Amino acid sequence: MQVEQIDEFRWRIPKRGKMQVEGLIFASAEMMAEIRQDQSLQQVVNVAHLPGIVGASMAMPDIHWGYGFPIGGVAAMDGKKGVVSPGGVGYDINCGVRLLRSGLSRKEIQPRLRDLVTRLYQNIPTGIGKGRSDLRLNRQELTRVLSQGAAWPVERGMGEEEDLEFIEEHGCLDGARPDLVSDRAYQRGRDQLGTLGSGNHFAEIQYVAEIYDEAAAAALGLFLDQLTLTIHSGSRGLGHQVCSDHIRIMLEAAARYGIELPDRQLCCAPIQSPEGQHYLGAMSAAANYAFANRQVMTHWARESFMQALSLGPRQLGLEVVYDVCHNIAKFETFVIDGRSRRLCVHRKGATRAYPPGHPQTPEAYQEVGQPVLIPGDMGRYSYVLVGTERAHRETFGSTCHGAGRRLSRRQAKKQARGRNLLEELERKGVLVMAAGMATVAEEMPEAYKDVSAVVDVVEGAGISRKVAQLKPIGVIKG
Amino acid sequence: MTYRFLDHTADMGVEIEAASFEDLLAEGLLALTDSLTEVEQVGLDMELQVDLVAPSREDLLVDWLNELVYLFETESVLFGLAEIGVEEESGGWRLRGTLQGERYDPDRHRIKRLIKAVTYHQLRVSSSSRGWQARVIFDI
């Protein structure tokens, strides 16, 4: 694979053969040596073949081998002539991250930490099984969730109107078509609203361990030692089913539209075709389910904090800092060669990172830019960044999304054998409660790369700016 | 009939070998159950019928395994055995199967991990003089 270094953090794969655009990878030299070892660069090249792709087939420093698209991939398609691909979004549609800030410091809650983690674990269903019995949806209500997104729980008293201001797209994608979501997806989604799921999903109590930019941290309402909560989850079985349904449709459609696929999982259809429109409508509905899911869990997290700490909502002040999607395709407008263009931006394991002054950046953050939330692993740290003008110009307003795995699940389990991971983590000051010990082993800190290296690359490249580092003290997992 | 799990950094793959295509599908069921829970702990007191049609053998394998993911998620049923018949018909391949399993019981079934979906990524189904082989990757 021919890869040319552009600068310290940028690498180019020149156009060749039927590539429509070049490949652009953000990574350090050290990372690039590692990236070359799997097939993810070939996936960057494969995505560059898709009809209507604009600019470059991009990959963020947390790139790794995915299905069809690499994880960490960004591809913007021309809104009229381009294609949309379910593989460019992934199975967990609108998997994303929400950060909440409290008015409390770590010291204030440390004596009650066990109780707090226990309450969270009791109130937010994790792992297998259905959601809470006090939130069972009939088809009509589920249809409303799919249309309204995060506004649905807020209208029912699960959250504040103000929460919506601090969610990407205000917690609702336009163009959602619940009528195009299959019965099977409805079946899977009916009892899962307000559930965390398993795998790498989590809810984590953290504290602000470091601040890199005082002014930006103040604008985001963050201060040293402050208690925060991060929720990482997505659209659950409903989203997985929407993806499976439409991959199947598009495998057939791609052949019919004469689109050559280097990998079947890259299947796609023209955005303007019936198949493309149907996928976008169903995918947007699933994305709204994910927004609602994180909103419901936010409400239960607030209740958990109030119960464990015997506080009222005002004293607690658990407010939404921001909520980002990292598996999504949506229409966004960018100026390219002096011309404003509406593009369908696929972010598969990548985060939107809009600059200061952008109309989609919340009013309160206009001076600093849109918050970007980058989880690490449950033993080390996560980061809060903000978007930049350069990202808007160069990466369709996109940046990285996480650490990326270092060990396969099998390798991780092997390394965990004979160890008491919960005890190890507790000794490091992290209290973990999980539905399954196998998940804890597969998700242990050593299974992940050091997220600080990823964050340093996007900052070094100028596509995000570091604001704060968060360290975990309590985690619930599936 | 055998299967073995493959290393895939983010997720999990499986390679399956069997004498016939039908056995390959039945073995796929065991591999899927084995990645969810301890397969030997799954009883066989429930019976369910499945009828699927797919345009190719590859698609049929993915649809079949996705059907099991769906049934586990919506009906909480884990499967330990399948009797499968596959026929070619116009428009593709038809699978008729009788599945045996039991309702998930948190006290007896330790869940290893959950599967989001069965993918088409690097999907392969082939036959040789040694029988049938397949590779399939699960999204975790």
Short description:
The complex is a heterodimer of chains A (478) and B (140). Chain A is built from 16 helices and 19 strands.
What does this structure look like?
By secondary structure, chain A is α+β, with helices and mostly antiparallel strands. Helices cover about 35% and strands about 25% of the residues of chain A. In chain A, helix 4 runs antiparallel to helix 10 and helix 9 packs antiparallel against helix 10. Chain A is globular and about 65 Å long. The two termini of chain A are about 40 Å apart. The mean pLDDT of chain A is about 95. Chain B is an alpha+beta fold. Chain B has one domain: Archease domain (Archease, Possible Chaperone, Chain: A, domain 1). Chain B has two helices and eight strands. In chain B, the strands form two sheets. In chain B, strands 1, 2, 6, 7 and 8 form a five-stranded antiparallel β-sheet that branches. Classes of the chains: A alpha+beta (about 475), B alpha+beta (about 140).
**Annotated CATH topology of chain B:** Archease, Possible Chaperone, Chain: A, domain 1
What is the class of chain B in the CATH system? Alpha Beta
The CATH architecture of chain B = 3-Layer(bab) Sandwich
Strand content of chain A: 25-35%
Q: What spatial form of chain B do the alpha-carbon principal axes imply? A: globular
The total count of strands of chain B amounts to: 8
Number of helical segments with 4 or more residues of chain B: 2
Sheet with the most strands, sense and barrel status of chain B: 5 strands, antiparallel
| Proportion of beta-strand residues of chain B | over 45%
Structurally, how many domains make up the residues of chain A? 1
Mean pLDDT of chain A: 96
| Major interchain interface with per-chain residue totals | A-B, 44 and 33 residues
| Helix proportion of chain A | 25-40%
Could you name the CATH homologous superfamily of chain B? Archease domain
Fraction in helix of chain B: 25-40%
- CATH fold label of chain A: tRNA-splicing ligase RtcB
Low-confidence stretches of chain B: none
What is the residue-mean pLDDT of chain B, rounded to a whole number?
94
Q: Radius of gyration of chain B, rounded?
A: 14 Å
Q: List low-pLDDT spans of chain A.
A: none
What's the domain count of chain B?
1
